[in-house]
Design brief:
Blueprint lengths: L13 E4 L2 E8 L4 E7 L4 E5 L5 E8 L1 E6 L2 E6 L3 E4 L5 E5 L4 E8 L11
Antiparallel strand pairs: 1-2, 2-3, 3-10, 4-9, 5-8, 5-10, 6-7, 6-9
């Protein structure tokens, strides 16, 4: 059966370590939405995706963000775009800073158990 709705209270956070956790909101083969919550000072290590484009919307808090070598501080309501092959990373400036990450296509690796 296809699920068309997300129940936030029924979905647990997945601890990723180093003060970062994620919660998958939903996905199709072409799109994935993921909440990512950071403790203050937690680092989303700079990286690039081979095939995934990413848009990250700041739901709460603030981040220092670097995309393709350009740094900026983003606050609630701001967003950044990281096309595939563009290096990007973040540092949380406040406790419980949260991003809503959108990926296209779906991050199949996120659907695997975290070890």
């Amino acid at each position: 059966m296809t699920t068309y709705y997300f129940d936030g209270n029924a979905t647990q956070w997945t601890e990723l370590g180093d003060g970062i956790r994620r919660k998958i909101i939903g996905h199709t083969p072409q799109l994935m939405s993921v909440l990512v919550e950071f403790d203050k000072g937690a680092i989303g290590t700079p990286h690039a995706h081979d095939i995934h484009d990413q848009i990250a919307y700041v739901v709460s808090g603030a981040f220092e963000v670097v995309v393709d070598g350009v740094a900026r501080v983003l606050k609630t309501g701001d967003a950044f775009i990281a096309p595939h092959h563009r290096t990007h990373g973040v540092v949380a400036l406040e406790d419980k800073s949260t991003l809503l990450d959108q990926f296209s296509p779906c991050r199949e690796d996120y659907l695997l158990p975290v070890i």
